[in-house]
Amino acid sequence: MHTGMVLCIQDPSPLSRTKQAWVKGRGFLFNRSNQLKREIMFTKKNKHTGFTLVRKRVPYLFILPWIIGYLVFTLGPLAFSLVMSFFDWPITGDAEFVGIGNFAKMFTGDPQFYNSLLITLKFALIFVPLNLFIALLLALLITQPIKGMEIFRTIFYLPAVVSGVAVSIIWGWIFNSEYGVLNYLLSLLGMEGPRWLIDPKWAVVTIVIASAWGVGTMMLIFYTDIKGIPNELYEAASIDGAGPIRQFISVTIPSITPTILFNVITSVIAALQQLTLVLLLTGGGPLKSTYFYGLFVYNNAFKHHELGYASANAWFMFLIILLLTLLIFKTSSTWVFYETEVKKGKKGGRK
Amino acid sequence: MKITRKHKIIVYTLLVLFSLYFLFPFLWALITALKTQQEVFSYPPKFIPDAALFSNFIEAWNSQPFGVYFKNSVIVTVMTTIGQLISCSLVAYGFARYDFKFKNILFILLLSTMMIPWDVTMIPLYMEFNMFGWINTLKPLIVPAFFGSAYNIFLLRQFLMNIPKDLENAARIDGANEFQIFYKIFLPIMKGPLTLVAVLNIILVWNDYLGPLIYLSDQSKYTMALGLASFQGLHELQIIPIMAMTLVMVIPPVIVFFFAQKYIVEGLSGSIK
């Protein structure tokens, strides 16, 4: 105790600091078990500091694996790729500093950059709303109080656990324009199916259909959220004379807006990075109609060996994703309602 | 909620239609895998093969070193799962149960790694692993898992945040040290969310194609995903063995999913909030 007091007097620092010094001084005085008990009492007395000598280093030990991993596998490579984007960096031979040369080439000297960017945005524009719509529709279907719903839930989620390699092989066979079963089924309905993977106009559609097969994860996220909506809300709406559609618009949708936001962001990011399917299903073709941005970066790096240029490409997409996420977040305050806000509002109203 | 007859009919119709979309491709893959070469390329396509040739599966399995691919996939999947379980539980515990300097900044950094597109770090990571001499080994696919991943850490942290603080304080009074508290008290409670992390990791890693594609060049190191993809590229007309092996590749994650369905549904509802 005395040491602590002395330290307090010697070190006229802000309050929180003196408390820490106090702890340090005390730490040397007590034996270990005593110290632990003391510390708990101390912690209770001073909620403000919250941690003590022993516990001060321990948290960092727990998160150490991630910190090391972050430095070695994320931050380091991230910084290095930023550096590379300012270099002409061949796979063998010396790298040469080119300033913003790679970015200049991207915007002025490479028509493929714009093509890939446009195709990817087009894909995202079709895929994201469609995927959200299907996921929400399926989630609504499997929350209906009907027998056998667990089986349907399992069926709908099943493709989500399947590898992109398997997805592209299976769908590639179904879409096959000569022997494909899809066009045969369409012909039974009196329709002539397009040459899915060969016609540049339809290739993107095939990617959308095959990607939407994995909608199950998003469906489950919606499903668990819709299940959590209190039944009283529906009962109240029902008493007010709201039909099923009205209930959906006024009760279900507002209750799940945070989840919609989450799903919009994750699916936009996923859509902009789609690579496995185009690599295996179409290879970017026909006539580069599915040469997505991910494939553009991948080929620049591992096929054309322009490592600096590919890094610049990748950083550009990174910035787009950051900006889009930020934009979605910013606009979200107008249409996303959080439970806590509503509760606060209610309490205020009652007062 | 009351359900009218009309309502019921609409719901069932939609359910069946969507089931076709989700199930038929699997079924068609199976039908194809059991056909003869002639049946596959006949028109109109046959929906029931004359004789179901299960021997197609054995022939396909032996036509390429699929045994090796399968073994490699199992090694990578098991090792990464062990790595993720250890590292993510430690890190999540650190973030959830302690207060420390820079905690919030570090946690935001952790979450922001989820937004980094994988191709930004792809090239430097390749160079880094090349420097370690790890190219064409399974190490680049395994080792990073021992340093945690943002999504799994986030998932476990959300769970740990909901446990009352009294738990570890009581243990401290009894003289347990900080690691003992984690190991003996918290780890057993985390069984559910840890199962979820394991399942998600198994599905993710088993299916991964781009990682093996970049880091592996020797066929003896291929995983199932890479082996299957290269098989497809080699023999475009060999659709029967390709379909058979595609189904073989699909089976393990499907089995895992069936056993762990409960954890997935429950875990997802916890993670968003």
UniProtKB/TrEMBL annotation, chain B:
The keyword Lipid metabolism does not apply. Keywords: Cell membrane, Membrane, Transmembrane, Transmembrane helix, Transport. Signal peptide: none annotated. It is a multi-pass membrane protein. It is found in: Cell membrane. One of its GO terms (cellular component) is plasma membrane. Coiled coil: none annotated. Pfam families: BPD_transp_1. Residues 70-260 form the ABC transmembrane type-1 domain. Its main location: membrane. The chain crosses the membrane at residues 9-31, 74-93, 105-126, 141-160, 181-206, 239-260. One of its GO terms (biological process) is transmembrane transport. Gene3D superfamilies: MetI-like (1.10.3720.10). Belongs to the binding-protein-dependent transport system permease family. This is Sugar ABC transporter permease. The lineage of its organism: Bacteria, Bacillati, Bacillota, Bacilli, Bacillales.
